[in-house]
Design goal:
The complex is a heterodimer of chains A (190) and B (313). Chain A is mainly α and 190 residues long. Chain A is built from 8 helices and no strands. In chain A, helix 4 packs across helix 6. About 5% of the residues of chain B have low confidence. Classes of the chains: A mainly alpha (190), B alpha+beta (313). Chains A and B meet through helix 2, helix 3, helix 4, helix 5 and helix 6 of A and helix 1, helix 3, helix 4, helix 5 and helix 8 of B.
Chain lengths: 190, 313
């Protein structure tokens, strides 16, 4: 279960945790539904539609900032959480598609609509990126946080610097090296 | 040297080399790596990738999301239980709604399928609640539930009355309905809502697009997707959340935009907005070009402007 990662993250038990867990589950659902909604708008060639994760994360903040589970959470920290949700949703979706192609135990037996633009390479690249990011996190957690926030959450350099409490120059430097490393890992994996 | 230290070393060399002219990079690395060929190869590979700048990370995440959320190229679903799918009626975040027929009976139904049920328990719960709510409501002006089951992979679906009609406001516009006709239709809607309230169900998302008028002039209330059972009101955290994030701002009540406890007054407020629109021809507040926070303030604190005097009604 994709949301499991969230649940395992917090200590179990008291009421505040339960509110927090529910808020995360809601965030997860909302992020997914917005992604879906945008994807189908793009598919219908709705001119106003762009699948823009940055806008999506901002929208999620607007909708969820009053939720009891996120009271006291800063907008930046919320974006960080939303970036993680985005990563998990996309990785989980890619995993499912991969599994269904291989006919694995989790295979989907149904397909709902015509392809939005079928691209098996995207699945494999995303899964490879996910693995390479986990590895980077082990080496340098801050760098993995930069990539997750910027790529999956759409945070800009200024926001990422404020979130991680380092200078913008450091963000740029870390980001450039991380991108080069991950690009190389992806090329090797695929 | 542990992995983290090694990665620092790789980055140091990378940052130094990346600013050198390409012709000098190799010589620099040969010197800097002091015979460590693996280190040298690693930094060189990164320099190449930096130069190319074409990895996944340079791409728009939206594009990627679109690919990953798409299907895997197999033909789409053709049958659900005893029904044959005719076409997609609509799709949203929760799922897809199909128009389908039952060949043995020749009847049309609308089938709602929860997409990606695996994603979260909250989604499955919400879908199940909508189904239960529909099952509970038995009223001529409320689209009724016919059938429910799961697909072989566990995906839940339910079949309900297929309503071919126009949204209330559009219907009245198309038919140039008189005030009297508009009020009659509105009364039928209000009666259906009152019935739901009598069954302890709050709709919470009443708006013209969820109120259809059929060709025969009867109305149908649709989409109890975020409806709430009155008994579960103690779960304040949940109800506040769901109310907030899924409502349609133009018809939302002050308590909804403020994230406060909703009650039957919430539906009554939304009906008031619909009635205003039916009679005046526009919404009580113009929320376009406002941020959600600004919109919330207007809904919560302002009175609708007085009707223009020339609109003699």
């Amino acid at each position: 279960m994709a949301t499991q990662d969230f649940r395992d993250g917090g200590s179990a038990g008291n009421a505040a945790d339960s509110v927090q867990r529910r808020a995360l589950d809601d965030l997860f659902s909302l992020t997914y539904e917005e992604l879906r909604r945008l994807a189908s708008a793009v598919k219908r060639s709705d001119p106003s539609a762009t699948l823009n994760p940055t806008a999506l994360v901002n929208e999620a903040w607007v909708k969820m900032s009053r939720s009891p589970g996120f009271v006291g959470t800063s907008p930046l920290h919320f974006k960080r959480i939303a970036a993680r949700a985005m990563r998990q949703i996309l990785v989980e979706a890619a995993r499912r598609r991969n599994a269904s192609k291989r006919g694995g135990a989790e295979a989907l037996t149904i397909t709902f609509d015509e392809a939005l633009g079928t691209n098996a390479t995207s699945d494999r690249q995303l899964l490879a990126l996910h693995g390479a990011l986990d590895e980077l996190e082990r080496l340098e957690p801050r760098q993995a946080a930069i990539v997750e926030s910027r790529f999956f959450g759409g945070l800009d350099v200024e926001e990422t610097a404020a979130l991680l409490n380092v200078s913008e120059a450091t963000i740029l430097r870390d980001w450039r090296a991380a991108k080069a490393r991950l690009a190389h890992e992806l090329r090797r994996a695929i | 040297m542990n992995d983290s230290k090694r990665w620092k070393r790789v980055q140091d060399l990378f940052h130094q080399a990346v600013n050198l002219p390409p012709s000098e990079q190799l010589a620099f690395l040969k010197h800097g790596c002091a015979g460590d060929d693996t280190l040298q190869a690693e930094v060189l590979a990164m320099l190449e990738e930096d130069e190319r700048g074409e990895s996944l990370l340079e791409r728009n995440l939206g594009e990627l999301a679109q690919h990953v959320l798409g299907n895997d190229g197999r033909p789409p679903l053709k049958e659900i239980g005893p029904y044959q799918i005719t076409r997609v009626l609509g799709e949203g975040g929760m799922g897809v709604v199909y128009l389908a027929t039952r060949p043995d009976l020749g009847s049309h139904v609308a089938i709602k399928v929860l997409r990606d049920a695996w994603l979260s328990p909250a989604r499955r719960g919400r879908f199940a609640r909508e189904q239960q709510t529909l099952a509970q409501l038995n009223h001529p002006s409320i689209a009724r539930l016919y059938d429910a089951d799961v697909l072989p992979d566990g995906t839940p679906w339910f079949a309900m009355e297929y309503v071919k009609g126009l949204p209330l406001t559009e219907y009245c516009r198309c038919h140039s309905s008189s005030v009297d006709q508009r009020l009659r239709l509105f009364r039928a809607v209000a009666e259906a809502v009152q019935y739901a309230h009598g069954q302890a169900v709050i709709h919470r998302d009443l708006k013209p697009s969820n109120i259809l008028v059929k060709d025969d002039g009867t109305v149908r209330l649709l989409d109890f997707g975020i409806a709430k059972q009155l008994e579960s009101f103690d779960l304040q955290a949940e109800q506040t959340m769901t109310g907030l994030r899924l409502m349609t701002p133009a018809y939302a009540s002050p308590e909804q935009v403020l994230g406060q406890r909703v009650g039957i007054g919430t539906d009554v407020y939304s009906l008031g907005v619909v009635l205003y629109e039916l009679l005046v021809g526009e919404l009580p507040f113009d929320l376009s070009n406002l941020t959600p926070a600004e919109g919330a303030t207007i809904i919560a604190e302002h009175e609708p402007s007085h009707l223009p005097p020339q609109s003699e009604r």
